[in-house]
From TrEMBL:
Pfam families xref list: YoeB_toxin
Molecular function, one GO term: hydrolase activity
Protein name: Putative mRNA interferase YoeB
Stored Gene3D superfamilies: RelE-like (3.30.2310.20)
Taxonomic superkingdom: Bacteria
Protein's UniProt keywords contain Hydrolase: yes
GO biological process, alphabetically ordered: negative regulation of DNA-templated transcription; RNA catabolic process
Keywords: Endonuclease, Hydrolase, Nuclease, Toxin-antitoxin system
Family matches, as NCBIfam families: toxin_Txe_YoeB
UniProt keyword Nuclease present: yes
Family: Belongs to the YoeB family.
Source organism: Candidatus Thiodictyon syntrophicum
Length: 120
């Protein structure tokens, strides 16, 4: 009979060493074992980031938060991710502000950031 703290999903053997971990900590541990994606910044994106640092630091911080979120989970999360069908199925965007978007290309092992300003 499973104990009160046994998870409903399969847990890696190394995580089972502790007699009673919380479900939340096991879930976080399992999510961190996924290999990280490589971030590739196109020159236009870097110029856009320099623009935001020079003009509006708050928006620059928001853009960097979106970059981190896109590396963790490219298809869900903050910024309302949506595919850009007119640019191809692998290109996605997230909202920086009401006017500006962050566009990125998702590959299997990397995420290429294309644009960090304007609307596509």
């Amino acid at each position: 009979m499973p104990s009160a703290c046994s998870p409903r999903w399969p847990v890696p053997a190394r995580a089972q060493a502790s007699p009673c971990r919380s479900r939340r900590s096991l879930r976080r541990w399992a999510l961190k074992t996924e290999p990280p994606r490589l971030a590739v910044f196109q020159p236009g994106f870097i110029e856009d980031l320099h623009y935001w640092v020079a003009t509006d630091r708050r928006t620059a911080k928001r853009l960097l938060e979106l970059v981190q979120a896109a590396l963790r989970e490219p298809f869900a999360g903050i910024g309302k991710p949506e595919p850009l069908n007119n640019l191809g199925g692998d290109v996605w965007s997230r909202r920086i502000t009401a006017e500006h978007r962050c566009a990125y290309l998702v590959k299997h092992d990397r995420v290429e950031f294309l644009q960090g300003r304007f609307h596509y």
